[in-house]
Amino acid sequence: MSQTRVSRLLPSSSWRGLARALSLAATASLLTLNPAAAQQKRQVSFGLSVGAINASYCMYPVAIRAGFFAEEGLEVKVQPIPGAVTVVQTVLSGRLEIGGSTPEPLLQLFERGNDELILLYNFIRRPTGSIAVLDESPIRKLEDFRGKKLGAQSLASSNIILTNGVLRQVGIDPKTELTYLAVGMGTTALQAMRSGHVDGLAIFDSVYAQIEATGAKLRYFVGHEQDRLFAVQFIARKDAVKADPDLYRKLGRAMAKATYFSQQNPEACIRMMWDEVQSSRAIGVSDEEQMKTAMAILTRRLTLLITPDSEKHGFGWHNEQDIATWNEFAVAGEIIKKKIDFTGRYTNEFVKDYNAFDRAEIARQAKAWKPN
Hints:
This protein is an alpha/beta fold. The protein has 18 helices and 10 strands. Helix 3 (59-65) crosses helix 13, helix 7 (158-168) crosses helix 16 and helix 12 (245-264) crosses helix 13.
């Protein structure tokens, strides 16, 4: 990750007299005139439940490249981690200060009585996951998936839990009537369907956008009221938030700025991602073709990040009705056995802080941005 390095002027042991005095004076002057630059930034590890950063998550590189993390005194290392289950476990262990997870593994953790984690920021406000098949597939309804094979990003993917919940609603027992195979993302997932290795996919919006950008036609299946189910949430240990609430205010504000910046200039978001995450740029593919695919992915994702309720209440805000819908869906789909008491397990306490920035200024920065 990029960072600003501040070099402190230290006198050599061979300097004498005036040279030593001048050097110390220069150092004191530098620290006095620019204390922010000399202050060491807080190191933060941010786990994200995705195999690799693509355009749907380019707001994270924006927060780095546009300096939004740095403005908050933070140096953030974003770690892609395949599977939300692994992210939840790693945050719980204390090895990550913050993580981005979908709700399914959190609900199951809460059902087991764990009260150590809290939902801090509602990042992806609508569902990303769904089941998809090739347009020519004979599968026409959810019941047709009985006995079929579905491809997932990895076998730790939370989309498996979501899909199990959807299919249980139509009488399919995932334990005995469904098989999951890890197929990765993008063209490898598409090839798994075309070759017959799997009958469909249980992945998410950005991968589907990438597949469709190749010209492939997909059909989608979703469960009852699935459109109200929020997706990625920023989570942390409660004790960590209590010990340093300002850290989480700052992280949320930086991500809110980056999200708004990305909406105002999607191309800049993508180009910042290419600069920050070298692996996000394909070799042997023209920038024009890559930009076309990336824009399709990001355009779809932004509709899930910025919604009427986030415009009304602010980035990060949790809708109590959406939480109730998740509870009902999770029980009906046998993700959990009974509803979770969410008291103290989510908070809107920091929403005002997340949104304490000048949107007009961020929009100006976004529109003025030029590639290097």
